[in-house]
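Hi Y.,

Following your request, here is the sequence exactly as I used it, all 112 residues.
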Amino acid sequence: MSDFSQIQVADLADDAVLLDIREQDEWDRGHAPGALHIPMSELPARVDELAPFLEREEAVIVTCRSGGRVTRVLPWLEQQGYDVANLDGGMRAWHAAGKPLQTADGSAAQVP
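Below is the corresponding structure, written out as tokens. Let me know if you'd prefer a different format.
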């Protein structure tokens, strides 16, 4: 994991591409507005959805709840040709920093 950039929530650019690889129920309870959601288990079948980001100069920032799943996904995405980085602390850090969260049903957001 040390080979990949660690992006702090406070340093995340407003137009950064944020790929959330958490499961559907986690996403539904609270996610970053504008994030792209592809659960880790679906990533091999849906990786083409990231193709528009291949030409960007900025890395695709990958996040999960706290970073564990990202460690398995970043090397694979890099092998597919993507410039990737980890959102340090994941969605827990995002939530703790007071960043906006959306939910599927409009209820209060949670990042358990």
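The mean pLDDT is 91.

Thanks again,
Q.
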